[in-house]
Write a structure and sequence with these properties.
Order of helices and strands: HHHHHHH
CATH architecture of the largest domain: Up-down Bundle
Helix content: 40-55%
Keywords: ATP-binding, Nucleotide-binding
Number of helices: 7
GO molecular function: ATP binding; DNA binding; enzyme activator activity; single-stranded DNA helicase activity
Protein name: WRIP1 ATPase
GO cellular component, one term: nucleus
Domain MgsA AAA+ ATPase C-terminal: 17-168
């Protein structure tokens, strides 16, 4: 029932707050109460990107490994795998930079009126002669062929200069 959601919320908030003791408590309370370890592992995968993100990119690897370990061996042996992951997450630095930026992109798409801007011609693939003749791919600079970074726009003209990492939703 509701306690299922209360406990997972307490686990998330304890990890987010870097309280490794409380994190272990809520994990154990869930597992000892019969919670599906794969449910917990799936939530840890989300937490790795949503709450830790780029502050520790290996967190996602830890979460996926924990999920796979739980899938392979099940309970009760997988409890220590989840415990290790939960403590890792509680101790990890936190960043919601990507989470916020992606939310800003979604908001931009939702608020857009009319048809979405077309993909710029230089970014379009040109698998046919007709597409090449229409200018698809023309002027595209293939970055790996350059020693220095290349100047090239990747957003549609209407969004030029937009930085979703700096934009704030109102």
């Amino acid at each position: 029932g509701e306690e299922h959601y209360n406990c997972i919320s307490a686990l998330h908030k304890s990890m987010r707050g870097s309280d490794e003791n409380a994190s272990l408590y809520w994990l154990a309370r869930m597992l000892e109460g019969g919670e599906d370890p794969l449910y917990v592992a799936r939530r840890l995968v989300r937490f790795a990107s949503e709450d830790i993100g780029l502050a520790d990119p290996l967190a996602l690897t830890q979460a996926v490994a924990a999920y796979q370990g739980c899938h392979f061996i099940g309970m009760p042996e997988c409890e220590v795998i989840l415990a290790q992951c939960v403590v890792y997450f509680a101790r990890a630095p936190k960043s919601i930079e990507v989470y916020r930026a992606y939310s800003n992109v979604k908001e931009c798409l939702r608020m857009h009126t009319g048809p979405l801007p077309p993909v710029p011609l230089h970014l379009r693939n040109a698998p046919t002669r007709l597409m090449k003749d229409l200018g698809y791919g023309k002027g595209y600079k293939y970055n790996p062929m350059y020693k220095e970074p290349v100047e090239q726009d990747y957003l549609p003209q209407e969004l030029k200069g937009t930085d979703f990492f700096k934009e704030r939703k109102t």
